[in-house]
Design goal:
Layout lengths: L1 H43 L2 H68 L13 H16 L4 H15 L9 E5 L15 E8 L2 E4 H58 L31
Length: 294
């Protein structure tokens, strides 16, 4: 009895399996039919190229984990390099700050020296660094590689050589920008020799004295030219006047002789002839030497 019951259960279970298998086969057939239909449609839409593209994408997707791993390792190395660079920069920071301060100190010293007016600045709004470089190149062409001590020596030699002729202007030479007078921080040895003088009771720079003396020389030249003209006119007028007066005296003597000769002669009618010299009044704009016989 028990065996028959078990057999019935097994048969029932097998029937269920057969039913499910039949259903799955029907669904599989339907799926295959739809798959074939899709494939046919894909063939009409360039299926092979799409499949190759899908395969390529799948391959790339499989490679991405490896690429990400390599990129992660590279990023780690870059971060370490960045940390090393930042550490090195921290070491250079004090040196950089010192250089920047030195540049600021030099710029301040240059501006103060520029105020002396010893060099001509053509562009008023020119950047300080560009102006400094331009002046450096122009001065280098003028003095070459001559050291500052040699320039100072030549200047002092020339100063003492001509100082005697400039005594009336009280010319003096002094050092500017010395350590006692001004502090430029990290910039050392910026002292400059400055020549000053007195002109008409006022303190002036040497350049101002030169300009004032140039003006005086020009004024004196104009005065001398006017004086020379007057002297020339006096000499010319005096010389011409003397010659004219000499001619007049000679003419007067000749007239006198002719007069005596004419008075000593008698004409047939008993008349006596005579010749007289009468000075002609000077016309407007003519001098005494313009006088002639009447």
């Amino acid at each position: 009895m028990l065996k028959e019951t078990n057999l019935l259960e097994v048969e029932e279970y097998l029937d269920n399996i057969r039913y499910e298998l039949s259903t799955d086969r029907a669904e599989l057939k339907d799926v295959r039919a739809r798959l074939d239909s899709v494939r046919e449609q894909l063939k009409l839409t360039d299926y092979d190229k799409i499949k190759d593209r899908i395969d390529s994408i799948e391959k790339r997707l499989n490679e991405i984990p490896l690429v990400r791993t390599e990129a992660s390792m590279t990023l780690g190395r870059r971060k370490q390099e960045e940390a090393d660079i930042e550490k090195s920069l921290e070491g250079f920071k004090p040196q950089l700050e010192s250089r920047l301060k030195h540049r600021d100190d030099m710029e301040r010293a240059f501006k103060d020296e520029l105020k002396l007016g010893l060099v001509e600045v053509l562009e008023l709004n020119e950047e300080v660094l560009k102006l400094a470089e331009r002046l450096r190149l122009s001065l280098r062409e003028a003095v070459g590689d001559t050291k500052q001590e040699d320039v100072f020596g030549r200047l002092q030699e020339t100063f003492h050589k001509y100082r005697g002729g400039l005594t009336r202007y009280n010319v003096n030479m002094n050092y500017l920008f010395t350590g006692e007078a001004v502090d430029y921080g990290s910039v050392k040895n910026v002292k400059r020799l400055d020549i000053s003088a007195k002109y008409k009771g006022s303190q002036v720079k040497f350049g101002g004295l030169v300009s004032a003396l140039d003006g005086e020389v020009l004024e004196l030249e104009n005065i001398l030219k006017e004086s020379d003209r007057e002297i020339y006119e006096d000499i010319l007028i005096g010389t011409v006047g003397r010659k004219i007066r000499a001619k007049i005296r000679l003419a007067e003597k000749w007239v006198g002789k002719i007069k005596l000769l004419m008075e000593s002669m008698e004409t047939s009618s008993g008349l006596t002839l005579s010749l007289a010299w009468k000075p002609k009044k000077a016309e407007k704009g003519r001098g005494a030497w313009d006088e002639g016989p009447g």
